[in-house]
Amino acid sequence: MQLLLLLLLLLLLLLLLLLLLLLLLLLLLLLLLLLLLLLLLMQLLLLLLLLLLLLLLLLLLLLLLLLLLLLLLLLLLILLLLLLLLLLLLLLLLLLLLLLLLLLLLLLQLLLLLLLLLLLLLLLLLLLLLLLLLLLLLLLLLLMLLLLMLIILLLLILLIPLTLSY
Fold it and tell me: 110-118 long-range CB contacts below 8 Å, 24 or more apart?
């Protein structure tokens, strides 16, 4: 009987040990499952991080493209401004050329006026010279007349005594 009790006790102990072992195995399996779940979560987190990084990279690429487009637009604006400035300079040069042409025309007109004035002055001088020559001729004629009159007078003076002497 005691032997039977001992055997039963041993069996109970063995069963308890087996139960403990099973519990330990179950705990180990649970731990492994938790670890696997953690690994899966880590992988999911890594995937999420990778996706976030890809999204950030895409956003940075988009920003870079936008900046490049803005730079191109600024370059186009600068080119347009340069073209406008060149056009304004060309217009200014054309206006200056027109102004120079007008000034040249005015100068030519002034020169023509000066030539006309000079011609008028020369004409006046010629008229004055002609008048002076006419005056001189008149004076000469007067002098000649006076001389003739003097000669006639002298002849008369000379002839009177001769006629008186006859």
Answer: none
The answer to whether residue 138 scores a pLDDT higher than 70 is: yes
pLDDT tens, 48-95? 999 999 999 999 999 999 999 999 999 999 999 999 999 999 999 999
122-130 contacts: CB < 8 A, separation 24 or more?
none
Pick from 84, 87, 65: which is nearest to 76 by CA? 84
pLDDT mean across residues, the chain: 94
Planar angle of CA 97, 101, 102, nearest 5 degrees: 120
Instruction: Say how many CA atoms lie within 13 Å of 42 toward its Cβ.
Output: 6
How many CB atoms are closer than 10 A to CB 4?
8
| CA dihedral for 45, 51, 52, 57, sign (positive or negative) | positive
Per-residue tokens: 32: 């492994």
Helix (H) or strand (E) holding 1: none
Please give the model's pTM, rounded to 2 decimal places.
Answer: 0.41
What is the rounded CA–CA span in Å between residue 159 and residue 152? 10
- Alpha-carbon distance 68 to 114, whole Å? 67
| Percent helix, percent strand, percent coil in the chain, to nearest 5 | 100, 0, 0
